[in-house]
Prior knowledge:
The complex is a heterodimer of chains A (327) and B (324).
Chain A: H1 2-14, H2 19-27, H3 29-44, E1 51-52, H4 60-68, E2 70-71, H5 75-81, H6 85-117, H7 123-134, H8 141-152, H9 158-165, H10 182-207, H11 211-219, H12 224-249, H13 256-261, H14 270-273, H15 276-285, H16 292-320
Helix pairs in contact in A: 5-16, 6-10, 6-12, 7-10, 10-12, 12-16, 15-16
Chain B: H1 11-19, H2 23-31, H3 36-64, H4 68-74, H5 86-93, H6 95-128, H7 135-147, H8 152-162, H9 170-173, H10 180-193, H11 196-204, H12 209-220, H13 222-237, H14 241-246, H15 257-266, H16 270-273, H17 287-323
Helix pairs in contact in B: 3-17, 5-17, 6-10, 6-13, 10-13, 10-17, 11-12, 13-17, 15-17
Amino acid sequence: MSQIAKKDIKPKKKSKLTLDDIQLFLLSLPTTIWFIMFCYVPMFGILIAFKKYKVAPGKGFLWSLVYNSKWCGLDNFKFLFKSNAKTTIAMFRNTVGYNIVFIVLGIVIPVALAIIISHLYSKKLAKFCQTLIFLPHFLSWVIVGYFVYAFLATKEGLVNNVLLSMGFDPVKWYQKEGMPYWPYFIVFLNVWKNVGYNMIVYMASINGIDGSLYEAAVIDGATKHQQTKYITIPLLKPVIIIMFIMAVGRIFNSDFGLFYRTTRNSAALYNSFVTLDVYVYNSLFNSTIPTYGYASAAGFMQSVFGCVTLVTANAIVSKFDKESAFF
Amino acid sequence: MAIFKKKEADAYNELDAKKNVSNVSDGMIRFNRVSPLANAMYSALFIFIAAICVLPVLFVIIISFTAEKSIGLYGYSFFPKQFSVASYQYVWNMRELVGRSILNSIGITVVGTCLGVILTATMGYALSRKSYKFRNFFTWFIFIPMLFRGGTLASYVVNTQVMHLKDTYWALILPICCTTFNIIIMRTFFTTTVPDEMIESGKIDGASQLRIFVQLVLPICLPAIATIALFLTFAYWNEWYNASIYLSTSRSDLFPLQFVLVSIEQKIQFLINNANYVGADAQDLPSETMRMAIVVIAVVPIMFSYPFFQKYYISGLTVGAVKG
């Protein structure tokens, strides 16, 4: 029976394009062009990583790159791992290390807060607080950088003034070599800015949970703690997993503004905030002689590793729980 | 509990709905809640966290109204000894630069948002039609860039050398006007709210897909449009990264507001170089407070608008994250 049905359907699938299809294609053509120009064409740009870039004066970048630069194999990568090994290790350590901390805290804290806020008696208070906690998400890192500066500025900053009034010496937060507190500041700022956003995702899922589940649990004598452990968290699991995969897929990316703006790109702190994105940006736009080759080698690894981690994370998840997987 | 069957509703509609549940469930909710002590502790915790999120903004506002002298003596403080509006007067004197950048930001935001909404909605609509033959292909087509990206350098090369966007407004508008995430939100919304029968009836009446899209689909999808428009509006208003890449330092006539802040900070010399913008002598500028005043100008529109729009924002977030 089913075979006959299949045979009936198949020729339909192979039928010619309808007017509908053409119209829909034309409707989405501008977006298609946008994706080609801004996403697909740049993908070929990663080939720069395998070229020895040489400027051809007056001919523009593209000409220099295609005709004037020779293929150089893995030389750019060798530079990263030999001559430049210290920065390279620091940027990989920072990119992945910070991201792992961000992923853990970015799940634990918002889930905990979302569960707690659903327990508050006053829904008005809950909404009021949630709105305020959402505020940092709407601010750019430039603005946040100024906030940080207001607290940490050497001369006028609030923290140093408090330290002074308590009889301590003021600290040069931005200039002191190897300042040990910056990793904590960076983690705090990331949590501070994103907690409202993540909380809302989990709050919406908690509100979507069928209330009769809790009623049944209460009748069976479950405590609030048990309800959370056996109803709320298991039902939040799919959302947590999706948020987790998306975060893991970006593990080689970093929120550029966080690392670049809040630290003011200070040379003394470089080792505690340099990530792949910061390195690429600095070597392209902040150096007197832009080092295209090395920057693109770093960028190439970022693209490839990022793709591999996302696909791997998704494959692992879909093995355990097919429904929660991303694709 | 029929209310919980409503899938697309955002968190708060449901919270409000909970209040109207019959007395029995009301009693159940009352019975099944944390102890008053725990409630007090949780409330205090949330008030504390909310304060941490808002205090920096208040702090910067206070600084911008502090007299420069007071800052010289006591530094930044929540309780300044002397208030002053001098910083805003200096910003007013710089209106050719700051005012222009505000207009730039508004222009970029409006044009970018409109363009982005059009690009997102058309693709979202095409992908939501089950009969569309290229549906699978284009779903992958928009999904692959999420997996694999060319990176900063490659985008920079293409945008400056192929499309010649350097030192144009388009460099600030085009690169961020469309995202896979937004298209997926749109697609999900179209699939769940637009009934197939409606499209069919449009076809029977002889309407083209463009006409169906504009006259039938868009009017009932205004909430989704509002969501995407909000995402884009905030993204464009906060845009500084592309400005720092694609704009030369000499083209201050193109700077958006946020990038003025960046460039002021990058070069404290900025004002001295642009001395013709400033009415007063560059020497006695209240530079610290003035920068904070510009920060306030950039933050205030966001601060007073997002509480009213967050409902749409939240519904977009939940659709995108939960059903992406």
